[in-house]
Amino acid sequence: MNKNQTENHIILTINGKYISAPNSLSVIQALWHDGYPQVKGVGCLGGVCGSCRVMVRRKNSVDITMELGCQLLIEDGMEVFFLDFPASSQHSYHLSEIKSSWDVQTEFQRIFPEAELCRHCHGCDLACPKDIEVELGVNLAVNGRFQESGELFFECVMCNLCMTSCPEFIDPNHVGLFARHVSSYFHTRPSNLMNQLEAIRTGKLDVNTGENDLQVQS
Length: 218
Ligand code: SF4
Ligand code: SF4
Ligand code: FES
Prior knowledge:
The chain is an alpha+beta fold. The chain is built from 8 helices and 7 strands. The radius of gyration is 23 Å and the shape is elongated. The relative contact order is 0.12. Bound molecules: iron/sulfur cluster (2 copies) and FE2/S2 (inorganic) cluster.
């Protein structure tokens, strides 16, 4: 046993610095134990604000996982790195400017034009410390299924890890937030009806009402 390691203490690194702390502590508590100052108003310490996101590699493992520092108990030999990202500002909207639920899907495509370019690379799913089916949520929103999409993102803590993982700059967490917003702001219409209307609007579906004829363009 290392001379700094007592029965209940373990050694890990946080941002490259060796720390010895009782194994009952979370990563954040281990920092405090090491003398890092406690600052009020930075995070919730309850697993809901996402401000304590960390990248973790465990002893004898080559895998990297994304976790929340306030929820993660420390382990011997663990390597922890705090992550900081700028917030995205490319997708902005005001719900009050969406006239009705009939316009939600059109507005979604205007605000999030990248969403339909999803490569299904699973990067967002792998990055999510809350195990949310992020990719599915994005694709449900693309298909106008905002209620189902929003429900998937219910546990999202807006840590931005999926955002930084996305090669198409989709901002999946903001897609989820949009889905949650519109689901509660509007009584959203059935997705199959909205999909048909959107196909007509974008010219993918031709409706010749005079001859009672429907034609779908591939
Ligand atoms: S969906 Fe994205 S922002 Fe939300 S918790 Fe998962 S990784 Fe973080
Ligand atoms: S990271 Fe982006 S491109 Fe990849 S699956 Fe998620 S949303 Fe799609
Ligand atoms: S401090 Fe809010 S999730 Fe960890």
